Each structure stands twice: as C-alpha cells, then as structure tokens.
Amino acid sequence: MAITTTPPPATELDPDKLMGFVFRAVDEVGACLNGALVVMGDQLGYYRALVDYGPLAAPELARATDTDEHYAREWLNAQAAGDYIDYDPEAGLFSISPEHAAAFTDESSPAFLPGLFQIAHGTIRDTPKILEAARTGAGYGWHEHNTDVHAGCERFFRPGYLANLVNGWLPALDGVVAKLERGAKIADIGCGYGASAILIAQAFPNSTVLGTDYHAGSIEVARQRAAEAGVDGRATFQTTDSTEHPGGGYDLVTMFDCLHDMGDPVGAARQVKEILAPDGTWMIVEPIAGDRPEENFNPVGRVYYAFSTLLCTPTSLAQDVGTALGTQAGPARIRDVTTAAGFTQFRTVASTPFNNVFEVRV
To answer: Which of 237, 242, 265, 303 has its Cβ near the most Cβ atoms within 10 Å?
Structure first.
C-alpha cells in the first residue's frame, strides 16, 4: 500500500542552530572513528607503553611497541585532539593521566573501557548484515558476529562483575551467600566466556557451577579460562539452548546480561522454574534501564539502544519465537517475563551505572 504525504510548509532555517548541529555531527564522526583508534591503541600496546615509559614522542612509542612510527605519530595526535592523552608542545611529548591510564590499562577496574570500545567496533563492522536483516525482519545470530563482539562483551562486563558480584550482588539476595558457603549447586545460563561462573567458583570453593551457552565458541573459551583459574573441577561448561538445561535442583540460577538477547525469554524462564530447587533463587543481571523510553534518553541509554538495534535485537530475532525484548527492556518487562513463567516474587536488589540486578523466586 502506497503512503501519500503532504509536504510540510517551507520554514526558515536558523543558521546558527543548523551549524551547531553540523559541528556536533563532526564531533560524533570523530568519536566513531576514535572507537577504532582505541581498539588499535589497546591491541598494539600504545596505552600500556605510555603508562610504562612515561611521556613519549612518536619514534619512542613506535620503538617501545615494535610498530611503525608513521602510525604511532597519527594515533598520538588523534588521541591528543580528543583529550584522551595529553601533549606538551614545548617538549614534543605525549603522556596519559593516571585516571585515563586506569581506564585504558587496568582490566580489574570497574572503569576499564577497552572492552566497550572493542564490542562497539566489532558490532559496527557487522552493520552490513544488520541492514539486510532490517529490510526483511530477519535476525542475525550472536554466533555469526566477529570475535571482537564476543571478546569485547566479556571484557566490558567482567570488571563490573569483579567489582560487584561477590561483594555486593550475591549478598543482596536473601540467604544465598550462606548456601554458597555451605556448598550449593549453581547454573549460569548464557555464560559466554564464563567470567561470572569462574568468579563464583573462586569465591565459594564448596559450590559447583555449570555454565551453559548456545555458542560453542564461547564455551570452548570458558573451559580454557576455568582451567587457567584452577577451578575447572568446580566450574564446568556445556553447549546448550537457554530453554533446555541439564539436571535440576539448582540452589541458584544466574543470567548475566543475556535474558534480553534470548529469542524466547518466557520459555527460558519456565526452564529456570523447572530446574530450581524449591527454595532456589534466580538472579537476573540486565543492562540498566527505566521502563519508559524517555527514562533512558541519556548517554548510557543511548549506547544500549545502539547495541540493541545492531546486536541484541537481531540476536533475539535469529532464534525461535524472536521476542526481541531489547537491551533497554526495563524492570517491568523483565518482571512480566518472570510472571508469565509462574514466578511470584520479583525485586530489584542492586544497581550500578551499567546494570540492574533482580531477585526472582517462586
């Protein structure tokens, strides 16, 4: 059916407002390109060299990282132009502040940023596939994305889990820590590279964790990470769909930043209800969001809506049912999923600048 429209009446443009927007757009193009430059600086060791060796000129940075001086020079200038690093024009040297150094080189810091840039960089590279899918309503599976998406996701969320999971989120759940200390059975559904499962296994040696994910490549990495951490006997991993899970009687079921990606979140919730012990707890960690769109019109919400368009929604649409909750689903929609599956208790127990944490019980 053809759409007919009446052209709006001509209006006089405000040239200052127009050019203000143009320069804002120029700044955003710079930011878009800078995403690739941050990945470059992270992977070539440029940020680390500025931390380890102090103020450097381009030839020194190139020698320190065994890279070409021309690329080092342009990268340094671009980073200084964006205020990511500092430049001393008299000495001709570039340096990085302690705060920015922590953000770019300390993977244990909750402010660690390269993972966020890496997942964004990988997501943008797959945009041509999303353009095709948007024309037809098809999906594009998580497993189809490039490795920067998978690795970047883990690198972005893991520092937050490291800072909050054991010391904040688990203690906020009613009676769960005591169970974990005595020895509990845990299922970590949608475990990805296994960061959350490994952290739980390290903190609670009397407990066992089974991590599952439909992406076989992630499960392979998770097994390697568990072996490296020395917990592979208590943190095991298996490839399986979110609506099918081996075993039952789990004292704790966890889902970290993945429920909104599932094609059938209600089906997954019903599966959780089936495998939980009678007094078990389901912990859902989701991207921070309000229930109304306008509550998410802020820098974090903008990033998450972008990921939702290019990554999370296509991932859900690629699966059976294809509910496509979206990355900014909000607590009310997450509660609706749990209620539809037969759960009766739902509460928000914690939040960070990037996540909401929910406790769900029968």
So the answer is: 265
Could you count the other beta carbons within 10 Å of the beta carbon of residue 218? 24
Reported residue count of the chain is 362
Residue position matching structure tokens 């095709």: 132
Q: Are strands 276-287 and 250-256 parallel, antiparallel or unpaired?
A: parallel
Using one digit for the tens of pLDDT, what is the confidence trace for 99-120? 999 999 999 999 999 999 999 9
Nearest 5°: the CA angle 250, 271, 176 is: 30
* d(C-alpha 30, C-alpha 36), whole Å: 10
| pLDDT tens by residue, 250-261 | 999 999 999 999
The pair of three-digit structure tokens given for residue 313, joined into one six-digit string:
């929604």
* Count of C-beta atoms within a 10 Å radius of residue 356: 20
C-alpha 127/C-alpha 158 separation (Å) is 25
Residue 339 contacts by C-beta under 8 Å, 6 or more apart in sequence?
Answer: 346
Give every CB contact of residue 112 below 8 A, 6+ residues apart in sequence. 102, 103, 104, 106, 155, 159
CA–CA distance, 211 with 78 (Å, rounded to integer): 41
Of the CA atoms within 13 Å of residue 166, those in its CB half-sphere come to 17
Residues 295, 358, 225, CA angle at the centre, nearest 5°? 110
Two tokens, residue 352: 């960070």
